[in-house]
């Protein structure tokens, strides 16, 4: 069993109808590079009603220390940008480039023009922690002018690839979108467009994440079929929080990997799915289409209870893991999908934990330095938060509960980068309650 965590209170969650902090598709809400840990979140403006501000906090951490005691958080607030949409999609994501120390933020999107800002070259870990170290909010990326691919952005995600950084996001709308990917170079300090690696045709892919481990990128996704809106629908109907293009239209689990940092994508069995080549044209050679042979690894029909954008991770032995939920005997259950290093797929039912619901809070998964796998699951019918563990030494036979707490209400997010270099599991979430919900970071010391 894990000992109770050290809890940091980061701020007060905004009083919004829709949760704008602690959502599963934030990649990342928290990250660690070198000896610094960063976390991003919204708080309400102290001066303007209905306005939220982007917060960026950092703290120095002692990676070599056995203790979870850490330095105090330093928080800066970007008061030059008003976040006003009460929309649970419009979260913040952060990426920190290991090679040049730059901090990249992308925020406040649901089919909106790109919003991006970054730290000035060389100032990412400057002792002076101030908003003056960052650019203004821009609608383009360093090295690239604004174009039509930056007009309808949702779900930005960053992933570290060695000294460089990838940025991926959806273009288009729910049920009718595609995913594109850029790479930022720590040498040139600029982004280049790699291509549209996932294409929707009368549907859209919803990825569980994108992970880089031992030189390989992994991504998994389901598809959501498109349902036409009635002609009387508002022009912004696609931005509503539910239906008709909702999770009931989700289907299948698909998977692809890349061994050249996102330029070429292959199926689980090794066949080539797409070679991007930075092209603006999209066809079966330059993008993974819904009809791509080999991409689907589990046939899961619509109406099976799966959610989009749940969780995934890659272990240090070449294995890949994805988390979702499915109806088993018409009861919603947590489900784990595992690809061995040799490419064999298994499906594992998760028991002994609070059951999920069809649209309840999503969970996260991660691995420690020894390739043991952890699930961090939010209670869907209660305010519990549970951590489950599956042992590599025991052949991943089962997931056992190693900690449960109460009083939480969010989709827990983990610091994947910190786990790569330490035995501390950092979990970002928020507390439960109708008012004065707190944004918290929980630090757990994992057994060696």
What does this structure look like?
This protein has 448 residues and is mostly beta strands. The protein contains 1 helix and 29 strands. The protein has a 4-stranded antiparallel sheet with strand order 1-29-28-27. It has a 4-stranded antiparallel sheet with strand order 2-3-4-5. Strand 10 (164-173) and strand 11 (176-184) form a beta hairpin. It is globular.
Percent of residues in helical segments? under 10%
N-to-C series of helices and strands: EEEEEEEEEEEEEEEEEEEEEEEEEEEHEE
Report the sheet with the most strands, covering strand number, pairing sense and barrel closure: 4 strands, antiparallel
Mean pLDDT: 94
End-to-end span in angstroms?
Answer: 13 Å
What Rg do the Cα atoms give? 20 Å
SSE-based structural type: mainly beta
Overall morphology: globular
| Low-confidence segments | none
Sum this structure up briefly.
The chain has one helix spanning 416-419; strands spanning 6-12, 30-33, 36-44, 52-60, 74-83, 92-96, 103-107, 116-118, 153-161, 164-173, 176-184, 191-198, 203-213, 216-225, 250-258, 264-266, 272-275, 296-298, 311-314, 320-328, 331-339, 345-349, 364-367, 373-378, 384-390, 400-406, 413-414, 424-430, 438-445. The chain has 448 residues and is mainly β. β20 and β21 (331-339) form a beta hairpin.
Q: What attributes does this structure have?
A:
448 residues, mainly beta, four-stranded antiparallel beta sheet, 29 strands, 44% strand, globular
């Amino acid at each position: 069993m894990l000992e109770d965590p050290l809890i940091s209170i980061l701020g007060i969650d905004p009083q919004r109808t829709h949760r704008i902090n602690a959502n599963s598709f934030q990649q990342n809400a928290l990250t660690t590079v070198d000896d610094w840990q960063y976390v991003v979140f919204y708080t309400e403006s102290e001066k303007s009603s209905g306005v939220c501000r982007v917060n960026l906090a950092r703290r120095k951490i002692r990676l070599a220390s056995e203790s979870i005691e850490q330095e105090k958080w330093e928080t800066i607030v970007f008061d030059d940008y008003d976040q006003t949409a009460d929309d649970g999609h419009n979260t913040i994501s952060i990426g920190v480039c290991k090679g040049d120390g730059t901090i990249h933020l992308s925020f406040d999107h649901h089919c909106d023009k790109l919003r991006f800002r970054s730290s000035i070259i060389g100032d990412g870990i400057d002792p002076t922690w101030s908003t003056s170290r960052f650019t203004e909010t821009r609608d383009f990326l360093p090295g690239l002018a604004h174009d039509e691919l930056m007009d309808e952005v949702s779900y930005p995600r960053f992933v570290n690839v060695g000294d460089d950084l990838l940025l991926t996001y959806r273009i288009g709308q729910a049920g009718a979108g595609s995913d594109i990917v850029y790479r930022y170079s720590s040498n040139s300090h600029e982004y280049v467009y790699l291509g549209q690696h996932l294409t929707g045709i009368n549907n859209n892919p919803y990825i569980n994440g994108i992970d880089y481990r031992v030189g390989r990128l992994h991504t998994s996704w389901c598809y959501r079929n498109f349902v036409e809106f009635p002609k009387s629908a508002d022009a912004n109907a696609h931005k509503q929080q539910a239906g008709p293009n909702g999770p009931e239209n989700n289907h299948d689990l698909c998977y692809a990997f890349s061994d050249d940092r996102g330029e070429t994508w292959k199926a689980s069995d090794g066949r080539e799915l797409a070679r991007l080549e930075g092209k603006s044209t999209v066809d079966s050679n330059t993008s993974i289409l819904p009809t791509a042979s080999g991409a689907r690894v589990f046939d899961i029909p619509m109406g099976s209870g799966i959610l989009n954008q749940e969780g995934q991770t890659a272990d240090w032995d070449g294995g890949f893991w994805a988390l979702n939920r499915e109806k088993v005997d018409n009861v919603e259950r947590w489900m784990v999908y595992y690809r061995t290093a040799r490419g064999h797929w298994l499906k594992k039912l998760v028991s002994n934990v609070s059951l999920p619901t069809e649209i309840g809070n999503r969970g996260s998964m991660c691995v420690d330095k020894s390739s043991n796998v952890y699930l961090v699951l939010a209670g869907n019918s209660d305010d519990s938060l549970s951590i489950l563990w599956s042992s590599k030494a025991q052949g991943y036979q089962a997931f056992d509960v190693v900690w449960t707490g109460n009083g939480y209400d969010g989709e827990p997010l983990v610091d994947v980068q910190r786990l790569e270099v330490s035995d501390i599991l950092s979990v970002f979430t928020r507390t439960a309650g109708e008012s004065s919900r707190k944004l918290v970071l929980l630090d757990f010391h994992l057994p060696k």
